[in-house]
Every structure is written in C-alpha cells, then in structure tokens.
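Take just one protein record:
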Amino acid sequence: MKLKSFLRVCCALPMFAVWYPFAGADEAPRPVKALSEKEQAAFLSKRTGGSMLGSFNGFCSLLYAACEVAIHTESQEINATQLKSFIPAFYKPTWREMFDAIALQTQSEWRYDAARGYWVFAKPQKPQARYSIEVASEWEQDNQGACICYRPPVAPVGMDIYTMGAYSSDDPEGANDLHKKVRDHFAVTFAKMFKEDVTPADMKEAAVNNYPALHFEINAQTGIIWRQWVIVEAGKAFVIVSAIKPEHDAHIYPDVKKMMGSFKVLK
C-alpha cells in the first residue's frame, strides 16, 4: 500500500500517530484549492475520525498528511497546546464538530481563509461561552479550555464543568439513542476513576436545572465525596463534577447545588 493511501485509512482510525513536517505558527500551509461556500458547508458536514493527538502543530501535520485537510494558526500559544482525544471511539464527528473540539481545547475560534485555502484558528477577543452559570459569592473560576474550574474560598477544589463536544446523528430518529449512549459513556468514564466496575445501572436519573442528567455519587477511598452529573442537551455533552472533603461538605455543597440550579446550555 502506498504511503498516502495508508495515511488516508489511518485518518479514520480511533488512534493513530504520525509526524509529517508541514505547518505550525512559523510556517504557513502550502496553498490548496480554495473551496466555495457550498463546498465548505459540504466538507464540514462530512464525518471523520475523532482522535486528536499531540500538539496542535503536530496535528496540523497529521491532518494534511492523512486527509489533505489544511489547518493553521499564527498563535504560538495555540500551536503549542496539547490536544486530547475525548470523543468516544464509537462516534465519528463531522469536521465542524472536530474543529469545534480543537477550538474548545485551544480556546480559539476558527474560520475558512478563502484567499489561502485553509482553516485558520485564532484567539478570540472574548472566549466563546458554551453555557452560562451564576458563580457563587467569593468563588473563583479558571478557564482551562475544555474544563472550567470553580473554586470556593475554603478549599482548592469545589466544582468543575467539562464541555465534552457536540454529537449529531445522520438519522434524526436515532439522535436520542446516540445522546443516551454518549451520556452513558462519559458517566462511566468519569466514575470508573473511583469504582472500576461501575455501570450506568449504578447511577441515578437526576435533573440539573430541568436538564435530564445521569448522577453518580460515592465516598471515595481518597477521603472525598465525589459527585458527578452528565448532561447531553441539544446534542452537546457536559460533565459537572464536585470533589469535596466531608468536613467542608456542609459549607461547599449548597453553593454547588445553587450554581447547578443556574446552569443553562447556550444554543
């Protein structure tokens, strides 16, 4: 099999790593054929593999070598960001969803540069919000891209909210089943850190500000009370987690519940 054919196959696999000298913040991609608006829309709706590996710079090389998809940034910060594959292996995202997942981790926005024929990621003037929440009094927040950490004044941790991407079905009738599968996947992924053999059957249906959620709670051996809620709303997945020491629970948990009560998914 020729190298390019081999790389094309690997582009759709859940895990594949290759380095191919191409483009980073210091070297722009080689020009490619510009896409019309119709061609851009058609491309973004196609599905691809969901793995994101290594730095943004390295991933640029992988996408071009394997898929002939040219992405680029002129930001050294974006270029150095290490990407993580959080999209479930059973799901193939659209290119739009893949680009959004990259932008989420690099805290950037993307657009198509028709003059140069590639997709450009850049830091926005204001980070794009995926949800809204009323932060409790005296709590601080730290935006880490895919995760925003909310910290109370009396402890180093209190509540984190993870944005885990968007999920769509080519068959509208299968969307609910897909979203449930995604919800169960993330619920188990997070909970198994504390209970290796956990299943969705060990969890309870709950509500977060009227959004259906799958809830799991355990007194962990690490000496904390671990709580998590997984929500898939409008095709967007969120995981809310809270890790509180028992001696702080009576003081911190009411604030956690109050903040969750204000949680709203933005369209």
